[in-house]
Write a structure and sequence with these properties.
Strand order of the largest sheet of chain B: 1-2
Order of helices and strands of chain B: HHHHHHEHHHHHHHHHEHHHHHHH
Structural class of chain B: mainly alpha
Helix content of chain A: 25-40%
Radius of gyration of chain A: 25 Å
Strand order of the largest sheet of chain A: 6-9-10-3-11-12
Number of domains of chain B: 2
CATH class of the largest domain in chain B: Mainly Alpha
CATH superfamily of the largest domain in chain A: P-loop containing nucleotide triphosphate hydrolases
Largest sheet of chain B: 2 strands, antiparallel
Distance between the termini of chain B: 22 Å
Structural class of chain A: alpha/beta
Largest interface: A-B, 32 and 25 residues
Oligomer: heterodimer
Strand content of chain B: under 5%
Number of strands of chain B: 2
Shape of chain B: globular
CATH architecture of the largest domain in chain A: 3-Layer(aba) Sandwich
Distance between the termini of chain A: 22 Å
Number of helices of chain B: 22
Strand content of chain A: 15-25%
Amino acid sequence: MTPSTSPLLRVRNLTKRFPGVLALNSVELELYEGELLSLIGENGAGKSTLMKILAGVQLPDEGEVSVAGNTVVLDSVKIAQSQGIALIHQELNLSENLTIGANIFLGREPQRFGFINKRTIAKESKRFLAMVGLSLDPDTMTADLSIGQQQLVEIARALSINARILIMDEPTSSLSAGETEKLFDVIRELRAHGVSIIYISHRLGEVKLLSDRVTVFRDGENAGELAGTDITHDAMVKLMVGREISQYYPHTSRPLGDVMLQVSGLVTQANPDHPLDFQVRQGEIVGIAGLVGAGRTEMLDALFGVVPCLAGEIYVQDQQVSINTPKQAIQLGIALVPEDRKNRGLILEMDIQANSSLASLAKHAHMTCFRNVPKERADAEEMIEKLGTRTPSVLQTVGFLSGGNQQKVVLGKWLLTQPRILLLDEPTRGIDVGAKQEIYQLIESLAATGLSILFVSSELEEIIGMSDRVLVMHEGRITGELNRAELSEEAIMQLATNADTTRAQKEEMHVL
Amino acid sequence: MNKILGILMLLVFACVATTMLSEGTFVSPRNIQNIMRWSGLFGIIGIGVAFVIITGGIDLSIGSMIGLIGCLMSMALMDWGFGITGTLVFIMIISVLLGLSHGLLVTKAGLQPFVVTLCGLLIYRGVARWITGDQTGGFGSEYNDSLRLLATGKPFSVATVLAISGLGGACWFVWNFWQQKQQRRDSIIGLVVCVVIAVIGASRFTNLSTTTIIKLSRGTTVDIITMPNDTQTINYRKMQLGKALDEQDAGKRPSALLPEILLNYLGYLTIAAFTWVLFLAVKSNGREARKSLLILGCAFFGVLLSQSVIGGKGPNWFGQSTGGQLWNSRLDMLIVFVALAALIFGINQFIKSTLKHNPSAKLALLITGGLAGCWLMSQTPICRTLVPAPMIFLIVIAVIATVFLNHTIYGRYLLALGNNETATKLSGINTDRMVILAYVICGACTGIGALLFALDLNSIQPAGHGNFYELYAIAAAVLGGCSLRGGEGSIIGVVIGAAVMRVLYNSINILKIPNQLEFAIIGTVILVGVLADETLKRINTRKKQLG
C-alpha cells in the first residue's frame, strides 16, 4: 500500500502477439504487498492474456516479470505456483465428484507409505477452510456445495499452495448478492493478512468498493491508473473507452420500412425474471451491446429456436409465430450467424460448397431428396464472388481458410436461405481489420436491400459505427435503448455496467 | 479418395500374391465364388454399420441380431407357417423395428450408442436362445429350389454382371450429359468406355448356352470352365492370350468367334487409355511422374524376376516340407511379396502424384483401371465364373447406398452431423431424425444380411450363429475408410474392406498358413492399415502447416 516499498510483483514491457493480433503491447503492472489491485478494460483489452502469462499458462514474447525483486520465467503453472502466484478462473475448476479435501490437495496429496494420508488432508483442509470462513467438513462432496462455497474452496486451494499473489477473474459473475458479500469479507480478511490480490471484474461498483488501486487496459495497452478517491465510476469508464471512432464504418441513413420483427415479453432460461421487449424494422440495423454474459447470445438463440422461449410472443411482419427449432426459424426467413463459428457455424472438415449449401439443400432438391449439384456449385460460386471470399476453389476445405474467409462462408450459407431477418452474433470476432471492413460493408448493403439485422457485438466502436439503434443489455435484461444520435461509448458503458438504471442494486452495493 | 486407393491396392496385392503363390488355386471358380459369397454377406452388414459409424455411433448388436433373426426366420417358416412372403415381410419388419429402437434410445433417451447396442448384443442373443430352447434351426431341404436360392443361387456370370454394370454406367453418363453441361466431354468419354465394358461383358455372356443358364440359376453348381484339350482345332490368337475355352468352342469355325476376336482388340483400348494417363501425368508434373514411373518400372522387373526365381515351385509357408526345400520356398514367398509390394506401392504413388497435380486425370485413371480389369477378366476363366446371389445383393445395395450417401440431401446431412452435430442442427436440420434413419438403415441391412446368412448355412445354432459378425462388419467399415469419430466414410471403401477381409481369410487357408493365426493376421493387417493411414494424414497436415 505504501508505494515507497518495492513492489511484490512487477511486470515490465510485456508484449504478447497472437497471429494477426497484438494482444499485449508493452504493458506495465505493479502490485504491492497486501494490496488489492483491480484490472479493468473492455472485452479483448488484454486482461486475460496478462493473467494467463502470470499464471504460467502462456509465455510472453517480450518483457519480464519479477516477483519480490527477482526476475522469473513463468513457463509452467507449477513454476508460477512455486512463486506464490495462483489464478482463480471465472469458471470453477473443481472436480465435483471429489470431496473438498481431495480438491484442495488434488495433485499434491500428502502420502504415507504410498497411500494417501487422509488424516493430514482433513486436518490441513480444515485450517485453510477456516481462513476463508467456511466451517464445512472436508469430507463433504464438492457437488453438494453452492457456487459461492465452491468459489471459497477454490480460494482455500490457492491458499494451500501458500499463494502470496491471488488473481481472481470475475469471481462474482455467478454469485448471489449474499454470497458476494461473504466473498468480499474473505477478500478483505486476506488482504489484511498480507495477501496481494489482482481483481478482474466488469462490475465497476465492486471495483470501486474493494480496490486500493485500479489499472485500466485498452487494446492491449495501459490506458491509465486510478487510486484512492480518484476511483469513480465515470473516471473508470472514461479510461476504458475514450478513443476516437475511425471513419471506416460505411453507415448511411436508409429509409426504414415496416416493423419486421417484434418481440414482446420474451423469457428464456438466461433471463427468467426480465422479459425482453423490442422491435426491428425492415432495413434497420439494431446493435445489441452489453458485456459478456449479459444474455445477448441466449436471446439470439431463442429467436432462432435453439433454446426454448419460456414465455412471450414473437411477431414476424405482424404475424404471430412460434419458433421451436432452427428449421422453423429458417422457414420464417430468420438466419443466425453464431459467435462460435468453428463449432456452431461451420463443418470444418467439409468443403466450401458443402458448407454454403447445407442450410438451403432441401430447397433446391430434386424430387425432395436428390441434391441439385450444379445449383449447389453455382450458389457457392455466387457467394464467393459476392462476398469476396479468397479461396482457390469451391472445393477447398473450410478448415484451411482464414477466420475472415470462414466467416464469409457462414454468411454465404445464410444468405442462400434468402433471409428477411439476419441475427449476427459477434460477426467480426477474430477477424483481421481488412476482412472486418468488408463485413461491415456487406452488412450495410444487406440492410439497404431491406434485411432487418440484429447485430451483437462487444466492440463498442463497431456497435456505434454500424447501428441505427442500440439496445444495451445487462444481466439478462435490456437496460436501455439509444438512438443513433445518442450513441456514445460512455452512454453504452453506463448502461452495460448498469450504473444508473437500477438504483436499488447500486445502493445494495454501497451497503456492503 | 487416397484411403480408398490405399485399400484397393491392398486388395490387389492380396489377390495377386495369393494367385501367384497358390499357382492358380486362388482363381479357381469354386474359390472365387466362395470369396464373392462371403464378401457379399459381410459387405451388406458392413454397409449397414457404416451408416451408423458415419453419424459417430456404433452398432455392436449386429451379430446377435443375425442370430435372433435367423432363429425367428426358421421358426416363422417351419413352425408358424408364415409362408415365404410372410416370413420375408416379418423379418424385415423386425429388423427395421430393432434399428428404430436403437435410434430412439440413442437420440430421444440420450444413451450412448455403445451402451445401447451392447445391451442389444446381450438381449438378442438371450432371446434367440430362449425362444428356440437352444434347438438348432434350419429350413430342411424343402426350400432348396425356392427360397434358399436367394442365398445359394448363382444367377449370373461375371460377364453378365460386367455387361449390366457397363449398361448402368452408360445410362448414368447419359444422364450426366443432360445434367452437367460443362462436363460433356467427360460424359462422352465415360459413355464410350461403359459401352465397351458392356459389350465385353455381353459377348462373354452369350457364350453360355441357354440351358446352362437355366441349370445354373436353379442353383446347381456346374463347373463350366474346362481347359481346351490337345486335339482342339482352333488355334488363333485367343490361344496365345492364354484364354481358357469353353467346351462349346471346340470345333467351331473361327468366323463364329469373330466378335470375340474383335473384343480382344478392344481390350487394347486399355493401352490407349494408359497412354492418355501417362500423358496427363508427365504434362502436369514431369519430375514426380518420372520418379514414380522409375519405381514402377523397377518393381515390375522385380516381379518378373521373382516369378522366374520361384519358377514352378509351389509355396509352403508353414507346412511340412522335405529337406532343405522349406527354406527355399519361404525365401521365394518373401521375394514375391516384396517385389509385389514394391510394384503396388509404385502404382499407388504414381496414381497419387498424378491426381495431386492434375485432378482431371481421375477420369482417365478410372477408365484405365476399368478397361484393364475388364480386359484381364475377359482373357481368363474368371469371366465365366458364376456370381453367387449374395454378391448380387451387395452390388445392388451398394449402388443404392452410394447414391443415397453421395447424391441425396440426407446423405449430406448424415456426413455433416457426423462431423459437427451442433452446426448441422443450427442449419435447420433435424439431426435426431437423421441419426434414427441411420440406425434404421443399419437394421434393414442387418436384416437382409441375416436372411442370407441363415438361408446360406441352413443350420442356425441359437448360441453361436452370427457371433462376432459385428466386429467383421465394423472392421470392414474401418478398413474402408470410415472414421469412428464420425463424418467420414464411403460405401465403395466398405465393400473393398469386406473383400480384403475375406481374401485374407481365404489366402490363409489356401497358402496353408495355420488357421489358428487367422484372427492375428487379420487384426495385424487392419492395425497396420489404420496406422499407416493415420501417420500419412499427420504428415500431410504438418506439411500443410509448414507450407
